[in-house]
Amino acid sequence: QVQLVESGGGLVQAGGSLRLSCAASGRTVSYYAMGWFRQAPGKEREFVAARAGIGGSTYYGDSVKGRFTISRDNAKNTVYLQMNSLKPEDTAVYYCAADASPFLSPDSATPKGYGYWGQGTQVTVSS
After folding, report:
1. What Å distances lie between residue 99 and 2, 36, 79, 102, 104, CA to CA?
2. In whole angstroms, what is the distance from residue 58 CA to residue 23 CA?
3. How many other β-carbons are positioned within 10 Å of the β-carbon of residue 88?
């Protein structure tokens, strides 16, 4: 089993930056595809970013391209989401997810593409 714990959320002004962390335990996730999703109140869970476990390919949601970066530190079994130029519409609970397959697929942009989830961390961007 893989346990995922997100951290780094908080309150930030528009235009600011935050870095979210997702620490994995139970198994090494070095070769797992990892993803970030977010969910705002009353809205469906939205894909943010994904990174392959092999090759380093990345994939981003249209609303965050050019502003967010997903990265991983395999030595720390941790995945990060660097968020720059934050906007009030980025306000949501952010979730980390892991998939035992190392490669990205069309399902990597949907919640069904992941078998493991963290509990989420709140990000609030004030205008």
Report:
1. 10, 12, 13, 7, 9
2. 19
3. 11
Q: What is the pLDDT of residues 17-46, one digit of tens each?
A: 999 999 999 999 999 999 999 999 999 999
Distance CA 113, CA 34 (A): 10
Q: Which residue has the tokens 């949601």?
A: 61
pLDDT in tens, 64-108: 999 999 999 999 999 999 999 999 999 999 999 999 999 999 999
CB 99 within 8 A of CB 35: yes
Distance CA 120, CA 17 (A): 18
Q: Which two tokens stand for residue 54?
A: 């092999």
How buried is residue 84: exposed, middle or buried, by Cβ count under 10 Å (0-12/13-18/19+)? middle
